[in-house]
Structure formats: structure tokens, C-alpha cells
Amino acid sequence: MLNKISESPAQTELLGKDFSALLDKQDVVLLQGQLGGGKTTFVKGLAKGFGYRGRVLSPSFTLARKYPAKKARIHHLDLYRLAQEEFKSIDIDGYLYDRQGVCLIEWGEKIEDYLDRYLKIVFLFFGPDKRKLMVSQKGYGRDKIKNW
Q1: For residue 144, is it within any domain?
Q2: What is the pTM of this model?
Q3: Is 85 helix (H, G, I), strand (E, B) or coil?
């Protein structure tokens, strides 16, 4: 496990941008934490790192958003309002197994048991703007996160 500290939303966004360098097409990143914990802010930075210059919005109400970036398609999902039996309603496999994309899933703990391989970032509050990001991985043959 690897830990990072963010002192502000801008720093959380920068951490996302830096994290994007670790990702390859078909990677799945689970984002876990309370509402307002910085998950979407992190995704904004990650999208910038992938070369996307448009607006990144929370997928809370749409359940899924797609961002066509230079490095890969970004699928940004939010499972907060879905039960596991409803995953098929949003074609979860289409997002997870897109050969040209990466999949970023807020409230990803709901799908952990379904996946053989993923990166996970848990966002913990340490104050109004301060966050601790705890990063782990499952199913990779190498330590993918060690250089972040």
C-alpha cells in the first residue's frame, strides 16, 4: 500500500494528473471515499494527464461519462445509486473491457469482488481540504504503483 497526502483540491487534481502516467489501456481504478472526498477532483487531474482538455463532471446522476482523451478513452462511472444486480443496466462490461479505454469507478467497493485486477484509491478526510489517499492494487504481476 502507498499513501499520499493532499492539502487542497488543486493538489488532489495534481495527484490525479501524476497518477495518470501509471495507467495503461484496460486498467480499472476504483475510487472509494465519502461524498466530497475528492474522487471527481482526482479524475479531473487524471483526465488532464491523459490529454483531455474538456470539462470533467461527476457522473453521480448520469451514472457514466466518457471522455475521449489523447492517451485513451476515459470511462468515469459512479455506482453510488446502483445495487450489484443493476450493473448490467449500464453495460458495465462494455466499460471494463474497452481495449482503448481506462475505467474509473467511484464507489468502486461495490464491484471489487467482480474484478480480478484493479488499482484502488481510498480517500480519507483529514480536515476541510486535507485528504489522505491510500493506494493499493490487486491482480498485477508487478508493483504498478511503486513509482507514484
Answers
A1: no
A2: 0.90
A3: helix
C-alpha cell belonging to residue 105: 469507478
Domains of the chain: total: 1
pLDDT by 10s per residue, the chain, length 148? 889 999 999 999 999 999 999 999 999 999 998 877 789 999 999 999 999 998 887 766 667 788 888 889 999 988 876 566 665 666 777 778 889 999 999 888 888 888 999 999 999 988 888 999 999 999 988 788 988 8
At residue 25, what is the residue type?
Answer: K
The C-alpha cell of 54 is what? 474538456
CA 6 – CA 126 distance, rounded (Å)? 9
Residue 42 lies in a domain: yes
Give the side-chain half-sphere CA count within 13 A for 102. Answer: 24
Indicate whether 147 belongs to any domain: no
Q: How far apart (Å, rounded) are the C-alpha atoms in residues 142 and 121?
A: 17
* CATH at residue 50: 3.40.50.300
Domain span holding position 6: 2-138
Cell of 3: 499513501
